[in-house]
Design brief:
The protein is mainly α and 78 residues long. It has helices at residues 9-22, 26-50, 58-72.
Length: 78
């Protein structure tokens, strides 16, 4: 399905450069990013609901949570 999306010139430039580096199209790049975000959200919801006890390695779970929080709050001004 085709959709229209408004992006800043900087984001379009970034998307074009990223697509070129990955040897893919802008559309495929954006579709892949959206799919990754969907998987990330589903994983986060599952882990948030069930907690770290579903993870065999607590250290890996804590590392995951730190990375998730850093990503989630990356644009916040501290």
């Amino acid at each position: 399905m085709k959709i229209g999306v408004s992006l800043s010139k900087d984001l379009v430039t970034f998307a074009d450069e990223a697509a070129k580096r990955r040897r893919t199209s802008r559309s495929e790049l954006l579709a892949g990013l959206l799919e990754a975000e969907r998987v990330r959200q589903q994983t986060q919801q599952y882990l948030d609901r069930h907690g770290w006890d579903v993870v065999d390695d607590e250290t890996a779970w804590r590392k995951h949570q730190r990375r998730r929080m850093a990503d989630e709050y990356r644009d916040d001004e501290w």
